[in-house]
Design brief:
- With 445 residues, this protein is α/β, with parallel strands linked by helices.
- The protein is 44% helix and 19% strand.
- The protein has 20 helices and 14 strands.
- Strands 6, 7, 8, 9, 10, 11, 12, 13 and 14 form a nine-stranded mixed sheet that branches. A five-stranded mixed sheet has the order 2-3-1-4-5, with helices on both faces.
- The N and C termini lie far apart (76 Å).
Length: 445
């Protein structure tokens, strides 16, 4: 018995009018706006609908889950309806739809790219805040495929726009990306690097560097951050910016996270036997690893294997990691804290729920983002100085350790020291260095 027959037995289709069936087929229920089925027919055969050429736009709402978590699904649904209402007013678009969840699509007139960008910017400007809370910013991630020969690409024009869309990675701004052939080259490069990951791990091509952290009051070494480098085929170092984004996008970054953690634990055990005075080492925790169901058990197994005192391991999360399932995130963080690990938030101040993080998360350390440190100085923006001083005062009140990253000048170091920062990381003291150089900084117990 086929699926249609089974469906007919469960649902009396005859009770629906033709209008009912069309509504179910071509409109989605939350916004009552056109759905992807309706749009797909027009993309597949544009000339049937009197369209010779067009550009395709695909966008989503960044961190839409945060809206639902903070304000509830009614507010989230209202935002979706607002987007659809504004899409419906775009007279330069042939057709628009809500695809699924917080994804939307547009078939628009083939006009110059700069004009498309200007019109999209104006459109997004109209939805940049929640109606229910005008202080809450809304950001979009948008991709555009503007191609002369649409028939040559056919339905794949949608994939090209999505490829451009996914190249937008900045968390706190609306991004409009146009497809280029270079993006396809980058995608192929990412696939190649991903396929090479297991071989490179087995061949020992990944190297852990350490960037020291110092206490500015007496210039004493108090910690370090472990950072990965790739000695590709042992022929030269590839910086992390050239492979980490690909591994994150493909969901395989957890393999590198575990490799770094095990390397750090192995070194901590070795340094302990050499009699060095140990300092905490921070390792980065990616989004993919954070939401792994075996995360805590995996970490525990690695650390126990090397009999490392857990107070010397600090897991560093970027602030953008928190824009997801915060209830689950806090559960994981509490589990790690209960096991004796330290926890820090990286890039603090770059997101819009920073104070919320401080109020709810079991942090031991807060790292002030380099973008703030770049702005401090005796003759620089007073507001930046004020913000950094107040962040440091807040960490003291909450009994959270503070660290400033990206410190490059003596002026910055002295100001931060005077304002009470606990530690500093940056080129003023040291760039990331190989492990043999880092070992020379240790003192004996």
């Amino acid at each position: 018995m086929n699926r249609v027959k089974k469906l007919e037995e469960k649902v009396d289709i005859n009770k629906f009018t033709k209008e009912d069936l069309l509504t179910m087929a071509y409109f989605e229920p939350v916004t009552l706006f056109y759905n992807w089925n309706w749009m797909r027919e027009r993309i597949a055969e544009p000339k049937k609908y009197g369209i010779d050429t067009f550009a395709f736009v695909h966008f989503d709402i960044k961190d839409f889950k945060v809206v639902n978590e903070l304000y509830g699904h009614d507010v989230g649904d209202n935002l979706l309806r607002k987007v659809c209402d504004i899409l419906d007013e775009q007279d330069w678009a042939y057709y628009c739809c809500r695809c699924d969840n917080d994804n939307f699509a547009m078939m628009v007139k083939k006009i110059p790219d700069d004009e498309i960008r200007a019109r999209l910017e104006a459109m997004f400007k109209r939805m940049e805040f929640l109606d229910e809370d005008p202080s809450f910013p809304v950001y979009f991630r948008c991709g555009v495929a503007s191609i002369d020969d649409v028939e040559a690409y056919g339905a794949t024009i949608t994939d090209l726009a999505k490829m451009a869309q996914h190249s937008g990675v900045k968390p706190n701004e609306t991004e409009i990306k146009f497809y280029t052939d270079k993006m396809r080259e980058e995608q192929l490069k990412g696939k190649m690097l991903q396929s090479d990951l297991d071989r490179a791990l087995a061949a020992g091509e990944f190297i852990v560097y350490y960037q020291p952290k110092y206490r500015p009051s007496d210039n004493i070494l108090v910690g370090a951050e472990a950072l990965i480098r790739w000695d590709y085929h042992h022929e030269g170092i590839i910086p992390p910016s050239e492979f980490i984004p690909y591994f994150e996008k493909e969901g395989v970054i957890g393999k590198l996270d575990r490799y770094v953690l095990e390397s750090v634990c192995q070194k901590l055990e070795e340094w302990k036997h050499k009699g060095y005075k140990l300092v905490p080492i921070s390792v980065n925790m990616s989004r993919a690893q954070l939401y792994s169901p075996v995360l805590v058990k995996s970490i525990e197994d690695i650390v126990n294997k090397y009999d490392v005192d857990r107070k010397y391991i600090e897991f560093e999360l970027t602030e953008s990691l928190a824009y997801g399932d915060t209830v689950y995130l806090i559960q994981v963080m509490n589990s790690l804290r209960d096991m004796g690990f330290m926890l820090s938030i990286d890039d603090f101040g770059t997101g819009y729920s920073s104070l919320n993080l401080l109020a709810n998360m079991p942090l031991t350390t807060l790292k002030i983002d380099k973008s703030f440190i770049d702005g401090i100085g005796e003759d620089s923006n007073r507001r930046v100085n004020y913000i950094v001083r107040n962040i440091l005062d807040t960490t003291k009140d909450l009994e959270i350790s503070s660290i400033a990253e990206g410190v490059e000048s003596e002026t910055q170091k002295n100001l931060l020291r005077d304002w009470g920062v606990d530690s500093i990381q940056g080129f003023y003291y040291s760039k990331p260095i190989p492990v043999d150089q880092f070992e020379k900084l240790f003192s004996k117990e």
